[in-house]
Amino acid sequence: MTYWTRPRLSSQDMLGQEHKQTFPNILKKGYLEIRKNHDSYWQSCYAELSPYNLNFYSLDSSGNQNLYATYQLSHFQSISVLGNLEARMVDTVLYDNSQLQLKAESPWEALDWGQKLWEVVHAAVPNYMARQEEKANSPGLGHHVDCAQNHCLQKKSSGLLASPVLDSPKQYQNILKSGTLYRLTVQNNWKAFTFVLSKAYLMAFHPGKLDEDPLLSYNVDVCLAVQTDNLDGCDSCFQVIFPQDVLRLRAETRQRAQEWMEALKTAANAARSSEQNLQVTLRNKPKDQLGGHELRKNKRQSVTTSFLSILTTLSLERGLTAQSFKCAGCQRPIGLSNGKAKVCNYSGWYYCSSCHVDDSFLIPARIVHNWDTSKYKVSKQAKEFLEYVYEEPLIDIQQENPMLYLHAEPLATVARLRQRLKSLRAYLFSCRAAVAEDLRRRIFPREYLLQQIHLYSLADLQQVIEGKLAPFLGKVIKFATAHVYSCSLCSQKGFICEICNNGEILYPFEDISTSRCESCGSVFHSECKEKSVPCPRCVRRELQKKQKSFWRQLNVDESLEEACTMFELSYQNT
């Protein structure tokens, strides 16, 4: 027996043209999968929730929507959200004890559908709560005993949000809104993400992968503005502006975009109010108490997260309009008659005179892209962040701007020294343990100078500019070179130039007089390698890869000398 009802799909006017029935005041809509019980199959459809009905539309091969079924909200007896964090669905029971199960594209979307459905049913049926309490207190209804376990919506809508996420990470609690939004990528393409808005964070996940770590995460309390974005005349686009990024998002409909904008503004205002109240409360506490320590720790983590993503990105001034004429630090009004706005040369954002006191600092992006070694004025937050990461090796010159070595001679000199040191490291680390420990002690705590020759910290770049890093590396190289020449083990690990074969022992760290093959690592005299002849070792390797049939064609057994002369290199007599 089925409970589906099939109302008339469309009406016709005098010309015989069909008109789809419209449902005003749509509270929520989207694509769902539905089934009537555990034994039936899931069916994809398009759903619309109005104040009095829940309507489902079937999709034909052309993507057209035809009204499939309508459920009156007054017929719903119970609404439950079943499952765990990874798989969740909405289970409902109708007046005739039949079931209707809904499954959304994500657990958060299913949770949102359950909450919305419960709120609308509660508003449409005044005695809904009384009926649910009566059923819950009735001893004869055994199937309601585990109502709390299945998160039945019998208390209030906030209970739906609290109970299902007890087993979830802390940042996933207090979910305010979730759903699919499209983000404009740097390739100027719209890409779908599942966004989850909580009281503290705005997170973006791959669709259907909420069990993984979020791809994007933003602190709601530092949100600067939420505004419409009239991109290409689209009325469902909006911007969410943070100090470190500007999210350009698009919803399915204009109403959906407005819902997200209102939710984001409400969450940001609530988070800022809560933070201000917390700071006022903690102001009278002793500084050595745990609360003040945690507050300072959280503040530093927030600043680090905000500025790390733009470490090697040249700042771009967006104007006070993008910040709604508010300070990026304390949110006070700035500009025009509200006080002078000072720009931070690290982030490009504007600050008030209290949050920007004209501190000067090196800008990593200007060094990497322009070899600009001047100091520029930055905000207090930027200065704190740059001091925090000052000695962290976060800048890869080869990845960010490999052409910089051609234009910055001091940096190219340091790169050559680090290459020599990397070659020496292979010798000393294969020698006695005491020797390797001595090398580590001389370079500590910057062992990355030995391994990743293109990785720099801001402190390293400042030493390059001041001419201090090259002499430091030179001293370490002098120690390591002296050991290799004098050690009975390391000195035996040299190379013979296979081009001239003069018997001289060569070492790869002698970069002035030697040259190394990038493929096999063989070492030659620089003069011999400049003749542009192929590497003998690489040639031998290629010949060894030939199949036996290749050698049979040459009749190697009958004429060995003739076969060998076919591969004789042109530099044998040099």
UniProtKB/TrEMBL annotation:
<keyword id="KW-1003">Cell membrane</keyword>
<dbReference type="Pfam" id="PF00169">
    <property type="entry name" value="PH"/>
</dbReference>
<dbReference type="GO" id="GO:0005886">
    <property type="term" value="C:plasma membrane"/>
</dbReference>
<comment type="function">
    <text>Involved in skeletal muscle differentiation. May act as a scaffold protein for AKT1 during muscle differentiation.</text>
</comment>
<dbReference type="GO" id="GO:0008270">
    <property type="term" value="F:zinc ion binding"/>
</dbReference>
<dbReference type="InterPro" id="IPR011993">
    <property type="entry name" value="PH-like_dom_sf"/>
</dbReference>
<dbReference type="Pfam" id="PF13901">
    <property type="entry name" value="RH_dom"/>
</dbReference>
<keyword id="KW-0472">Membrane</keyword>
<keyword id="KW-0963">Cytoplasm</keyword>
<keyword id="KW-0677">Repeat</keyword>
<protein>
    <recommendedName>
        <fullName>Pleckstrin homology domain-containing family M member 3</fullName>
    </recommendedName>
</protein>
<dbReference type="InterPro" id="IPR051366">
    <property type="entry name" value="DEF8"/>
</dbReference>
<dbReference type="GO" id="GO:0005794">
    <property type="term" value="C:Golgi apparatus"/>
</dbReference>
<feature type="domain" description="PH">
    <location>
        <begin position="174"/>
        <end position="269"/>
    </location>
</feature>
<keyword id="KW-0862">Zinc</keyword>
<comment type="subunit">
    <text>Interacts with AKT1.</text>
</comment>
<keyword id="KW-0863">Zinc-finger</keyword>
<dbReference type="InterPro" id="IPR001849">
    <property type="entry name" value="PH_domain"/>
</dbReference>
<dbReference type="InterPro" id="IPR025258">
    <property type="entry name" value="RH_dom"/>
</dbReference>
<keyword id="KW-0333">Golgi apparatus</keyword>
<keyword id="KW-0479">Metal-binding</keyword>
